[in-house]
Amino acid sequence: MLAYNNVRVEVESNALLGECPVWDAEKQLLYWLDIKGKTLNRFSTKTNLNQALPLCIEVGSIAIRTGGSLVAATRDGFAYMSDETGVLTAINDPERHFPNNRFNDGSIDHAGNFIAGTMDDFEKTQPVQFMRWVRLEVLPV
Fold first, then answer.
1. Which of 67, 71, 75, 86 has the fewest CB atoms within 10 Å around its CB?
2. In the chain, what are the domain boundaries?
3. 91: which DSSP letter?
4. pLDDT tens-digit map of 95-130
5. Entry pTM
6. For 66-76, what is each residue's pLDDT tens digit?
Protein backbone atom coordinates (compact mmCIF):
# COMPACT_ATOMS: atom_id res chain seq x y z
CA MET A 1 0.00 0.00 0.00
CA LEU A 2 1.30 3.43 -0.95
CA ALA A 3 1.41 6.24 1.56
CA TYR A 4 1.19 9.86 0.46
CA ASN A 5 2.54 11.81 3.39
CA ASN A 6 2.95 15.08 1.47
CA VAL A 7 -0.68 15.45 0.35
CA ARG A 8 -2.80 18.01 2.15
CA VAL A 9 -5.98 19.97 1.56
CA GLU A 10 -5.17 23.53 0.54
CA VAL A 11 -8.71 24.87 0.01
CA GLU A 12 -11.78 23.62 1.77
CA SER A 13 -14.67 24.48 -0.50
CA ASN A 14 -18.32 23.72 -1.04
CA ALA A 15 -17.83 23.89 -4.80
CA LEU A 16 -20.57 22.29 -6.88
CA LEU A 17 -18.22 21.38 -9.75
CA GLY A 18 -14.60 22.39 -9.11
CA GLU A 19 -12.40 22.16 -12.21
CA CYS A 20 -9.67 23.69 -14.35
CA PRO A 21 -6.74 24.44 -12.04
CA VAL A 22 -4.37 26.90 -13.74
CA TRP A 23 -1.13 28.02 -12.08
CA ASP A 24 0.12 31.60 -12.55
CA ALA A 25 3.82 31.44 -11.67
CA GLU A 26 4.30 35.21 -11.91
CA LYS A 27 1.50 36.02 -9.46
CA GLN A 28 1.90 32.85 -7.37
CA LEU A 29 -1.85 32.21 -7.74
CA LEU A 30 -3.77 29.05 -8.47
CA TYR A 31 -6.91 29.85 -10.45
CA TRP A 32 -9.73 27.31 -10.44
CA LEU A 33 -13.38 27.30 -11.41
CA ASP A 34 -16.59 26.20 -9.78
CA ILE A 35 -18.49 25.72 -13.03
CA LYS A 36 -21.97 25.14 -11.59
CA GLY A 37 -21.42 27.55 -8.69
CA LYS A 38 -20.33 30.22 -11.19
CA THR A 39 -17.14 31.38 -9.47
CA LEU A 40 -13.56 32.06 -10.48
CA ASN A 41 -11.34 31.17 -7.53
CA ARG A 42 -7.90 32.61 -6.84
CA PHE A 43 -5.83 30.74 -4.27
CA SER A 44 -2.73 32.59 -3.08
CA THR A 45 0.19 30.44 -1.93
CA LYS A 46 1.63 33.54 -0.24
CA THR A 47 -1.38 34.09 2.06
CA ASN A 48 -3.07 30.65 1.91
CA LEU A 49 -6.33 32.45 1.17
CA ASN A 50 -8.85 31.60 -1.54
CA GLN A 51 -10.89 34.39 -3.10
CA ALA A 52 -14.09 33.37 -4.93
CA LEU A 53 -15.18 35.89 -7.58
CA PRO A 54 -18.80 35.60 -8.77
CA LEU A 55 -19.37 35.00 -12.49
CA CYS A 56 -22.48 35.82 -14.50
CA ILE A 57 -22.47 32.50 -16.42
CA GLU A 58 -20.86 29.06 -16.27
CA VAL A 59 -17.19 29.08 -17.28
CA GLY A 60 -15.74 25.68 -18.20
CA SER A 61 -12.07 26.55 -18.65
CA ILE A 62 -9.59 29.40 -18.58
CA ALA A 63 -6.05 30.19 -19.70
CA ILE A 64 -3.66 32.99 -18.76
CA ARG A 65 -3.17 35.68 -21.41
CA THR A 66 -0.04 37.67 -22.06
CA GLY A 67 -0.35 40.72 -19.84
CA GLY A 68 -2.08 38.96 -16.98
CA SER A 69 -5.77 38.68 -17.75
CA LEU A 70 -7.52 35.44 -18.73
CA VAL A 71 -9.34 33.96 -21.68
CA ALA A 72 -12.36 31.77 -20.93
CA ALA A 73 -14.55 29.16 -22.58
CA THR A 74 -18.07 29.78 -21.28
CA ARG A 75 -21.68 28.75 -21.74
CA ASP A 76 -21.90 31.60 -24.27
CA GLY A 77 -18.65 30.95 -26.16
CA PHE A 78 -15.19 32.46 -25.84
CA ALA A 79 -14.58 35.55 -23.70
CA TYR A 80 -11.83 37.64 -22.19
CA MET A 81 -11.96 37.60 -18.39
CA SER A 82 -10.55 39.97 -15.79
CA ASP A 83 -8.46 37.98 -13.33
CA GLU A 84 -9.17 40.67 -10.71
CA THR A 85 -12.98 40.88 -10.97
CA GLY A 86 -14.19 37.94 -13.07
CA VAL A 87 -15.90 40.33 -15.50
CA LEU A 88 -16.33 38.73 -18.94
CA THR A 89 -16.10 40.42 -22.35
CA ALA A 90 -17.58 38.26 -25.11
CA ILE A 91 -15.45 37.35 -28.13
CA ASN A 92 -17.44 34.79 -30.12
CA ASP A 93 -20.14 32.14 -29.59
CA PRO A 94 -19.56 29.49 -32.26
CA GLU A 95 -22.32 27.21 -30.91
CA ARG A 96 -25.18 29.64 -30.38
CA HIS A 97 -27.31 27.25 -32.48
CA PHE A 98 -26.96 24.58 -29.73
CA PRO A 99 -28.63 26.30 -26.74
CA ASN A 100 -28.04 23.35 -24.37
CA ASN A 101 -24.32 23.19 -25.13
CA ARG A 102 -21.62 24.87 -23.12
CA PHE A 103 -17.86 24.90 -23.31
CA ASN A 104 -16.25 22.58 -20.82
CA ASP A 105 -12.59 21.59 -20.67
CA GLY A 106 -9.93 23.61 -22.44
CA SER A 107 -6.23 24.37 -22.50
CA ILE A 108 -3.55 26.06 -24.58
CA ASP A 109 -1.37 24.29 -27.12
CA HIS A 110 2.37 24.68 -27.75
CA ALA A 111 1.73 27.62 -30.08
CA GLY A 112 -0.43 29.55 -27.61
CA ASN A 113 -3.81 28.72 -29.14
CA PHE A 114 -6.71 28.18 -26.75
CA ILE A 115 -8.49 24.90 -27.45
CA ALA A 116 -11.78 24.04 -25.76
CA GLY A 117 -14.42 21.35 -26.12
CA THR A 118 -18.17 21.67 -25.85
CA MET A 119 -20.70 19.40 -24.22
CA ASP A 120 -24.44 19.08 -23.87
CA ASP A 121 -25.07 20.42 -20.37
CA PHE A 122 -27.85 17.84 -19.93
CA GLU A 123 -25.46 15.10 -21.18
CA LYS A 124 -27.83 13.99 -23.93
CA THR A 125 -26.95 13.49 -27.57
CA GLN A 126 -26.21 16.92 -29.06
CA PRO A 127 -22.94 17.21 -30.99
CA VAL A 128 -19.77 17.69 -29.00
CA GLN A 129 -16.89 19.52 -30.67
CA PHE A 130 -13.38 20.73 -30.02
CA MET A 131 -12.62 24.24 -31.22
CA ARG A 132 -9.43 26.21 -31.50
CA TRP A 133 -9.44 29.96 -31.08
CA VAL A 134 -6.23 31.59 -32.26
CA ARG A 135 -4.59 34.92 -31.56
CA LEU A 136 -5.82 35.28 -28.01
CA GLU A 137 -2.35 36.08 -26.72
CA VAL A 138 -2.27 33.22 -24.25
CA LEU A 139 0.96 32.09 -22.69
CA PRO A 140 2.40 29.00 -24.44
CA VAL A 141 2.79 25.74 -22.54
1. 67
2. 18-133
3. E
4. 888 888 888 888 888 888 888 888 887 777 655 565
5. 0.83
6. 877 999 999 99
